Fold this sequence. Notes:
This protein has helices at residues 18-24, 64-78, 88-96, 120-126, 181-200, 209-212, 216-235, and strands at 4-8, 29-33, 49-52, 83-86, 100-116, 133-145, 151-155, 163-166, 170-173. By secondary structure, it is of the alpha/beta class. It has a single domain (4-235), classed as Rossmann fold (3-Layer(aba) Sandwich). The protein has a 9-stranded mixed sheet with strand order 2-1-3-4-9-8-7-5-6, with helices on both faces.
Amino acid sequence: MKPIAIFQHTEVGAPGSVPAILDALQLPWCLIRIVDGEPVPADAGAFSGLVFMGGFMSANDPLPWIAQETALIREAASAGIPVCGHCLGSQIVAAALGGSVRRNAQPEIGWNRVTLEDTATAQEWFAQPAGASVPVFQWHADTFELPPGAERIATSTHCENQAFVMDGRHLAMQCHLEMTPQLVALSVERNGPQLDRAFRAGHPAVTSREQTLADLPARTDGMKSVLHCLYSRWAEGLPR
């Protein structure tokens, strides 16, 4: 089986629990460190799937590697190769598949909840009852609009589009289900002033620094279980 390519755009945007989940599913993977200047591969066919992690950039930024990833996603989709995106990655995937990316009405930073759509597709991917409320980690100011033909599987009070699937094989998640305790701590260490400013401004989808750093092992373990379910379903579409 060809490896799954994981694209890392920033140091804070590390893949977190994703490699361990892929290992548990016995799926080969490789890490492509865009953050260190590694080039975007020219051929999607070298991989069984593509996973795009987060970053502080906007999917609308005129960065060469964003345009190259967009082209790679479109090539993968045309060839039936599953793609998956986390936060910035979800926005790049959405834009590549015909959606768009814009500023959200307000930032989401820290711990929030997403609600699963009352659909069979949401139940199939999350392996939870329709309408279930799932605690997740967030750190974003932009949001995606759904590509034509995509189906939303999760939403939230302050950001309508939290996750979608398309063609039964492509998955995009605005939230950071991949976070580990170490990655949450690193996010706050590097970007804490942004969190503090947003919290002082009274944004309802922003938790305080103390709330953001509380109970990290239990919270991240819970997200890892959810993400394992999502990747288990995503893996069904991988070419063998």
